[in-house]
Amino acid sequence: MRAEREGLTCARAQIGNVMLWDCARGELRQSLGGQGTGHTASVTHLAFSVSGATLYAASADGQVTAWQVSNGAELWSLKVGKQPARRLAVHPDDDVLVSAASGIKMWDVSTRKCARKLPGHASPVVALAFSPCGAFLASGARPPACRAALARGSMRFGYGVRDAACPLSTG
Does a cis peptide bond (omega within 30 degrees of 0) precede residue 143? Predict the structure, then answer.
């Protein structure tokens, strides 16, 4: 399990804690969680905020926890639903966190409330990403299934969704 940001790599441990590594030096910088804090089950996915100040960790216990990268403090934790999140994505504006199991939820980071639910997939999501401009959210699941949705405003689904301000290649 990895998420990279400015020389750090995050790796999950067996007991559900998250470790921040300084890749240039090969040194452990922080260990997040464990011993009554953080996750009570294995970490399923990691995502840095675009600013790099926050690390979000999803786990098999159904929680998403936000960690302050600078000092390792747990900022908050929320229950994302009946199914644990398997993938996370952060909007380029750092104001929306998306969690995906087979269903997809968009969370307002400031209030930690679900701002929007998107139709999901028949099987667990294995890929989740915002377009660079943040206008679209793409998700993928097995068997091969792909969806794209407008991140704000009305939704469009299907293959080959395009926007003049942020073109997506259909390839």
Answer: yes
